């Protein structure tokens, strides 16, 4: 068995893992990234469209360009790279953690570390998760897999396409499939509003006159060997109206029906998960319920921008360094999701320093107000011109916001949308 020791092991070499590792090294700690495929970059490498990097690198980049810039930063540090290496499990020891991995080249690898950063990203929900009835022909793909086939492997998965779900991956694939010569007949969304970013609705559907059916479902997949057509049914007051079902001939169905944080490893290590995010419950330092194990990026909660992932991961790297230096927050106020808010991450706030919270709403609303209450008293408000569940909202808390707060050990913060 190959055995090595580091201060920190980062599991996953995507946008989150790389940003966290660079920050850890900036604090003169030794760090290893363990990545199960043979290259760094994660999901970024298949996102060849632009729309990345405006906040992180102050220029509009494609996913691979964003990754390239991060890889350059990693290579400037002494981060040890364990590529083609999958983390299988973690165990606590008296002095830290043992991280067990396997790799084709080295066999079993054991890393002895003082702290672990979980950065394993997320995976796509599939047909089984949404239970679409019908036959089981070829031609049904998750949108991210189709993206990989087109952008990385050079295959076109089909010519006549229907897309289920108007999440960003589905929208981007509607445009991508059109560009490679396929015809996208419909994007079908169960909600009465789109699930993806507004800019993607405009640039990926409207610009190509691809119809978006809101409050509709694909109610049946039909075809013997290959998909031949799908049935689409409108929802009226949330109930399918079968009489208005219509059929769309197609050979390919792409599913863009949500992402789930990749947390089996975390669960096996005893990390408590948040049912709202499917990611870990973390405190104000991004530490999970297992001391010394931290989490960031899409494995913590699904982010819409890589820039937010990198920012959160960098903060996590700094928190890990502080924790290893025995710094502990003296007070952490629990944060509750109030009216119209699905979740707030992280779930605790340290009133001794500025912080950034990320949240998702449950409603679509124009001219909304984010209201923060401390023990039922409004302590801060922020106006937001438009909110929708698919767009993550960030909220900065500055020391000046907090100075006048009367915080006690029993205090609770609540964030709501009005
Ligand atoms: C189709 C699509 C379009 C997008 N468009 C944009 C956009 O226009 N602009 C933008 O800013 N953002 C966009 N994003 C979002 C952004 O790309 C992601 O949020 C971000 O890259 C996620 O980074 P991550 O490191 O959390 O996860 P990932 O990139 O998924 O990285 C996780 C890594 O962990 C590895 N891993 C998992 N488990 C293990 C294990 N057990 N052992 C070892 N390694 C493991 C995986 O192989 C992977 O490399 C898009 C995302 C998608 C999918």
Describe this structure in words.
The structure is a single chain. With 418 residues, this protein is α/β, with parallel strands linked by helices. The protein has 3 domains: 2-123 and 260-328, FAD/NAD(P)-binding domain (3-Layer(bba) Sandwich); 126-257, 3-Layer(bba) Sandwich (FAD/NAD(P)-binding domain); 335-417, Immunoglobulin-like (Sandwich). The protein contains 9 helices and 30 strands. The strands form 8 sheets. A 5-stranded parallel β-sheet has the order 6-3-2-10-22, covered by helices on one side. Helix 4 (143-153) packs across helix 5. The longest helix has 19 residues, at 306-324. The radius of gyration is 22 Å and the shape is globular. The model has no long low-confidence stretch (mean pLDDT 94). Bound molecules: flavin-adenine dinucleotide (FAD). Flavin-adenine dinucleotide binds next to helix 1, strand 4, strand 7, helix 4 and helix 5.
Quick gist of this model?
The chain is 21% helix and 35% strand.
Strand content: 25-35%
> How does the overall form come out from the CA principal axes?
globular
In this entry the ligands are: flavin-adenine dinucleotide
- The N- to C-terminal Cα distance equals 57 Å
Question: In percent, how helical is the residue content?
Answer: 10-25%
Low-pLDDT residue intervals, each spanning 5 or more residues: none
Which whole number gives the mean pLDDT? 94
Radius of gyration: 22 Å
State the secondary-structure class. alpha/beta
How is the largest sheet built, in terms of strand order? 6-3-2-10-22
Major sheet size, sense and barrel closure: 5 strands, parallel
CATH homologous superfamily of the largest domain, by name?
Answer: FAD/NAD(P)-binding domain
Q: Which quaternary structure do these chains form?
A: single chain
Q: Give the CATH class of the largest domain.
A: Alpha Beta
| CATH arch. level architecture of the largest domain | 3-Layer(bba) Sandwich
Total tally of structural domains: 3
Please name the CATH topology of the largest domain. FAD/NAD(P)-binding domain
């Amino acid at each position: 068995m190959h055995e090595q020791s580091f201060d920190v092991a980062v599991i996953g070499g995507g946008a989150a893992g790389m940003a966290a590792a660079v920050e850890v090294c900036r604090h003169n700690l030794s760090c290893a990234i363990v990545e199960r495929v043979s290259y760094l970059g994660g999901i970024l490498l298949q996102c060849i469209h632009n729309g990345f990097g405006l906040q992180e690198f102050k220029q509009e980049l494609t996913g691979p360009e964003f990754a390239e810039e991060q890889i350059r930063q990693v290579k400037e540090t002494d981060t040890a790279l364990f590529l083609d290496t999958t983390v299988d499990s973690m165990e606590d020891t008296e002095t830290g953690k043992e991280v067990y991995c396997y790799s084709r080249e080295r066999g079993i690898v054991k890393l002895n570390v003082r702290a672990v950063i979980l950065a394993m990203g997320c995976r796509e929900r599939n047909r089984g998760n949404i239970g679409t009835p019908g036959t089981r022909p070829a031609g049904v793909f998750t949108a991210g897999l189709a993206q990989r086939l087109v952008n990385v492997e050079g295959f076109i998965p089909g010519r006549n396409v229907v897309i289920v779900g108007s999440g960003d991956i589905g929208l981007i694939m509607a445009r991508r499939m059109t560009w490679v010569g396929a015809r996208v007949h419909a994007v079908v969304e169960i909600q009465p509003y789109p699930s993806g970013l507004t800019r993607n609705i405009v640039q990926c559907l409207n610009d190509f006159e691809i119809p978006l059916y809101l409050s509709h479902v694909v109610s049946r997949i039909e075809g013997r060997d290959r998909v031949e057509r799908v049935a689409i049914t409108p929802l009226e007051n949330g109930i399918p109206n079968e009489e208005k079902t219509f059929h769309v001939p197609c050979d390919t169905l792409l599913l863009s029906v949500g992402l789930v944080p990749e947390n089996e490893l975390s669960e096996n290590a005893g990390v408590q998960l948040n049912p709202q995010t499917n990611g870990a419950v973390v405190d104000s330092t991004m530490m999970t319920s297992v001391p010394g194990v931290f989490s960031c990026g899409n494995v913590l909660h699904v982010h819409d921008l890589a820039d937010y992932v990198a920012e959160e991961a960098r903060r996590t790297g700094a928190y890990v360094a502080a924790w290893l230096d025995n710094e502990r927050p003296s007070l952490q106020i629990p944060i509750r999701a109030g009216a119209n808010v699905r979740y707030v991450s992280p779930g605790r706030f340290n009133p001794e320093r500025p912080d950034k919270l990320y949240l998702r709403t449950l409603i679509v609303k124009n001219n909304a107000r984010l209201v923060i209450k401390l023990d039922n008293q409004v302590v801060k408000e922020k106006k937001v011109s438009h909110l929708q569940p698919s767009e993550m909202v960030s909220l900065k808390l500055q020391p000046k916001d907090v100075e006048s707060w009367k915080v006690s050990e029993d205090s609770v913060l609540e964030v709501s949308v009005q």
